[in-house]
Amino acid sequence: MEDYKYLNIVEWAKDYIASNGLKPKDRFLTEKELCEIHGVSRQTVRQALMCLENENVISRVRGSGAFVSAGSAQPEQPAQVRNIGVISTYFTDYIFPQIVTGIESVLNDSGYSMQLAITHNKVSEEQQALQSMISSGVQGLIIEPSKSALPNPNMELYDELRKRNIPVVFFNAKYPWSSYPCVSIDDEAAGRLAADYAFGCGHRRIAGIFALDDIQGHKRYSGFTKSCIAHGLRNAEENVLWFATSDKNSVFTSGENNLLVQLSEVTAVVCYNDNIAVKLLQFCKEHDISVPDEISILGIDDSKYASICDVPLTTIAHPKRRLGEAVAEKLIDLICSPSADNNDIIFTPELKIRDSVKKL
Prior knowledge:
Strand content: 15-25%
Largest sheet: 6 strands, parallel
Low-confidence stretches: 74-79
Number of strands: 14
Helix content: 40-55%
Oligomer: single chain
Shape: elongated
């Protein structure tokens, strides 16, 4: 917990400056004094002082110590800023711009500003984003978790959020250990709906490609397998390829021969999302496999690519902007009323039928 104690010192220092009426250029406490007051190492104190300096709360002069800076002249100002932190795995591509636009529109209408951080689905970058937002004093956090199916090393930071009574709402997925609410599509139902449609079109040999390291991938796989079992296909897991989101191209490069063999044995493939489905369409084109005549392909999310690719994709619609609006509304409810209901909001998936599935 030592790594995160500096955040407590940062908040304590701001209160100390305000409650003691310190003015710009007044001398601040020394490293030694802070170590004694808080019972922490000098390294922890230095982290706190660096953060305070970055926020223009103090300034440090080599050989002279730390001094209150002009940024602390009106200590009540930070409390007046209504700021919400948004942490997303990605932003500029796929369905994320519409989700973030939905979040921002609701926050703006409610008088909140948005502080955005992107993790690129890396837990180390999630850690940095959480630390930065805690120290900046956000009133709440909207988070898409990184690698949500794997053990997460940032649990102490989430504990810190709980201690500070900072409300959190996850979107798209949440960590299995988390009690925070989540706003998402029903991913299990999405996987099942896609597979059910393939079976309904006469396909009996169906494969799947799913993400191994996030909960959405697991849930979509679960829905896929339940559909397979319901339609008498008992060995569904033998026709599933798994990939890590950080190396999604491996299915189509290092696993090329394996994928070609897999495609030769099935008539339809349910993909984790449209991103994978579009890559599979390209793979089939490069290997002279006709879609949908030789292989049918289904995606999930109804991304902007789904309707404009070479063979428009049959896919499962994602609420995108509406999901973003709902997650922001949920967080504002929790800020205004901490006793507000903490339940998840789950959107029902809808099928978008296009040209990538052939009826047998």
